[in-house]
Amino acid sequence: MANSSSSPSGRDLTQGIALEDIAEDGMVAGHVGGDAVLLARKGGKCFAVAAACTHYGGPLADGLVVGDTIRCPWHHAAFCLRDGAVTRPPALDNLKCWRVEQIDGRVFVREAMPAAQPPTPHIAQAPESVVIVGGGAAGNAAAQTLRLEGYEGPITVWSADTALPYDRPNLSKDYLAGTASPAWLPLRLPAFYAEHHIDIQCDQRVTGLDPQRKEMTLSDGRRERYGALLIATGATPVRLGVPGANLPHVAVLRTLADCNALIARLGNARQCVVVGAGFIGLEAAAALRVRGIEVHVVMRGAHPMERVLGEALGQMLRTLHESHGVSFHVAEVTGIEPHRVRLSTGVDLAADVVLTGIGVQPEVALPQAAGLALDRGVVVNEYLQTSAPDIYAAGDIARWPDPRTGEPIRVEHWVVAERQGVVAARNILGQRRRFAAVPFFWTQHYDVAVNYVGHAEGWDRVDIDGDPAAHACTATYWRNNRRLAVATVGRDLESLRAELAFEEETPVARV
Ligand SMILES: Cc1cc2nc3c(=O)[nH]c(=O)nc-3n(C[C@H](O)[C@H](O)[C@H](O)COP(=O)(O)OP(=O)(O)OC[C@H]3O[C@@H](n4cnc5c(N)ncnc54)[C@H](O)[C@@H]3O)c2cc1C
Ligand code: FES
Q: From atom 5 of ligand 1, which residue's Cα is the shortest distance away?
């Protein structure tokens, strides 16, 4: 995975710091030998951990200390300050830690500590086997959690994807731009799955499910039994329904194979039309501009991502993309030909490649065929259980009761999928954890990131604090005087604080 790890600077923490120089809940960045280290104070005690997040190297000094954890400002991973263990995705690996000693009011960072020990196994029930359908964010997190929690039975992951689980969000960002090496993408190397006895079967689609017999059918007709089952089949892109939409230069972007096929087509391409101004279309537009390709975005409303972010941030994104040379067209696509795209406005756009990003549909064919309760996704309770015993669902397919509003919601966010995978795995082992995490997503355009916490499908007011044009602002989405969601640009700490405030409305969210 990519890393922008911080290089050592600041104070030599082995030389000691006066305790009074570190504020309660505060941090001091420094170094120990060649390692960048963060000294954090909590409840009068101090902890020393690596200064860079293990996800993408986010600067933890700009994060937030919450209880005995530190949260990363970039994508809200959390780590235990005591032993560096990951307590929240999207980070997968623990932080390195150092021993800290206090002598006469001074704090000294000593030698590195041994790696964090796995948690004490807490298995109230151990199914005879666990089968996971889907090798994406949720499926991977669940498989890993089952082992971390001490489950020793067989784990099989069936994945229709040809590749082992990978960093899907990168596909519309650095990887598409050509600035990320393919080596960044795998979430784990094959040796990890082998070492943890996680049997991942790629390029294998599950086509049938019989909850009564606890049996599933694979596309080649084989039948497999399961003890407990997690369905994490994600979503599939909606296809454009206009003449020419099936031409070979019309692409979608969901899988690594999609992305590689798109990159291969970009070889001699000069112009690309992106249909849809959601976050995938827009991130892809930015990536294509990095490659020097002329980009035209066709969208329905005047502002990109307006349905999710509102007008002010939509306008900010439009201006940002325009400043990088992207052209926007408010129109419907009426037809696609080998070298052009026809618009409802009568405009014809030249296009060597057409990328459609007009939304996704939850991949519910399997739960539907099995008769599980559906409601624009798979209905799950607060424990992520479906309507069938021993079948859980997580990620883009799951519609769960939002503890803050009581309304059932479904989102398409990487971190939510991973956190649901973790909770589903724990519940498969009988831990009865409620899923109450505050939804979080980020989207990256050039050097501007938008972080979003909460969930607002509609609002009657948006308050803007700061200046969107300067890429430093906070948008707060309200309905009936209730704060539903907060989006920030250039204010990562505020996003972490907003997440915490939402959690404090429902204390269970911190679990
Ligand atoms: C290009 C791109 C960029 C994104 N960027 C961001 C971002 O910046 N921030 C953010 O928050 N979110 C982002 N997302 C969304 C995020 O990736 C998804 O929310 C997340 O991947 C959902 O995880 P999941 O496990 O539910 O599904 P997925 O990760 O899609 O995994 C589903 C898995 O199920 C498999 N599968 C499906 N059906 C079957 C079957 N019948 N049998 C066997 N296997 C099956 C698939 O092959 C796949 O392996 C992005 C998505 C894309 C496509
Ligand atoms: S860099 Fe820390 S969560 Fe992504």
A: 169
Which CATH number belongs to the domain containing residue 385 in this structure?
A: 3.50.50.60
**For position 56, which CATH number holds?**
2.102.10.10
Query: Which CATH number goes with the domain that contains 480?
Result: 3.30.390.30
Query: Mind listing the pLDDT tens digit for each residue in 202-218?
Result: 999 999 999 999 999 99
Distance 137 CA to ligand 1 centre (A): 6
Same domain? For 250 and 332 the reply is: yes
Which is the closest atom of ligand 2 to the Cα of 73? 2
345, 254: one domain: yes
7 band by pLDDT with thresholds 50, 70 and 90: low
Q: Does 139 fall in a domain?
A: yes
The answer to whether residues 334 and 248 belong to one domain is: yes
140 shares a domain with 40: no
Q: Which range (163-167, 257-261, 401-405, 413-417) has the least confidence?
A: 401-405
**57: CA distance to ligand 2 center in Å?**
6
- Burial group, residue 287, by CB count within 10 angstroms (0-12, 13-18, 19+): buried
53 lines ligand 2 (CB under 6 A): yes
Using one digit for the tens of pLDDT, what is the confidence trace for 113-132?
988 888 787 788 899 999 99
Query: 485: domain range?
Result: 447-510
d(CA 81, CA 83) in angstroms, rounded, equals 6
> Cα–Cα distance between 226 and 173 in angstroms, integer?
37
**132 alpha carbon, closest ligand:** 1
Dist. CA 117–CA 485, nearest whole Å: 36
What residues contact 105, with CB distance under 8 A and at least 6 apart?
A: 18, 19, 20
Ligand with smallest separation from the Cα of 361: 1
Centre of ligand 2 from the C-alpha of residue 76, in Å: 6
**Which of the listed residues 396, 443, 499 should we mutate to test ligand 1's pocket, taking the one with most ligand atoms within 8 A of CB?**
396
Note if the bond before 90 is cis, omega within 30 degrees. Answer: yes
Q: Could you tell me if the CB of 59 is within 6 A of ligand 2?
A: no
Q: pTM of the entire structure?
A: 0.96
CA of 19 to the centre of ligand 2 (A): 28
